[in-house]
Amino acid sequence: MKIVGVGCGPGLLTEEAIESIRNARRILGSGRAIELVKDCIPETCLVEQITDFRRPIGGDETTVVLSTGDPMLGGLGYLDGEVVPGISSLQLAAARLHIPLSKVCVVTAHGRDHSGAAEETVSEVRRGKIVFLLADPSFDPKDLFFLLRDCGPVRIALCSDLGYPQERIVTGTPDTPPGPVRGLFSLFIGNFPVPLQCNPSSE
């Protein structure tokens, strides 16, 4: 079985991912993941949409499980099988903001206590790291923004719908935070310069 990263948006498939999908006889994934790769799926392939990722997922060498973004960033990389990496929201956001990945600490709010994710973020920012916070739709960053006020010079970049036509990156500070939060979003938090192509003020 292969766990294939399909990228965080359209047009972000790697050649290895495309080849894996084209050689598959059975493909499983979320509706969004299937939509991202639909042009690569063979006509004879059995496609199954997964709505409950808590149930066991298995298959043979002809089975491909699709993971949005990269399987090892809040994805399905925990499954048994060969992992084919994808273009993650972290990679895309770092490229847009010109942030070196070597300076980044990843914090995820997926499947965990949101207050714990906020506390971890604040701790890493105080250590001088630039935090990439992978949020889930229910994560409300308001409390985090309040906690960041005591962390010195901090810039916040709200990245929503990365890789899609409606992609939006808005920056701000803990006192004037970016917003509103909508769609699929993540946050870069720390002391970093903002490229000219990014909006330097909150909306």
Could you give a short description of this structure?
This protein is of the alpha/beta class and 203 residues long.
The best one-word shape is elongated
SSE pattern, N- to C-terminal:
EHEHEEEHEHEHEEE
Largest sheet report: 5 strands, parallel
CATH H level, superfamily name of the largest domain: Tetrapyrrole methylase, C-terminal domain
Overview of this protein structure:
This protein has 203 residues and is an alpha/beta fold. The chain has two domains: 2-87, Tetrapyrrole methylase, N-terminal domain (Cobalt-precorrin-4 Transmethylase, domain 1, 3-Layer(aba) Sandwich), CATH 3.40.1010.10; 90-190, Tetrapyrrole methylase, C-terminal domain (Methyltransferase, Cobalt-precorrin-4 Transmethylase, Domain 2). The protein is built from five helices and ten strands. A five-stranded parallel beta sheet has the order 3-2-4-1-5. It has a five-stranded mixed beta sheet with strand order 6-7-10-8-9, sandwiched between helices. A hairpin with a 7-residue loop joins β8 and β9 (168-172). The radius of gyration is 18 Å and the shape is elongated.
Short key terms for the protein model shown above:
203 residues, alpha/beta, Cobalt-precorrin-4 Transmethylase, domain 1, Methyltransferase, Cobalt-precorrin-4 Transmethylase, Domain 2, 5-stranded parallel sheet, 5-stranded mixed sheet, 5 helices, 21% helix, 23% strand, elongated
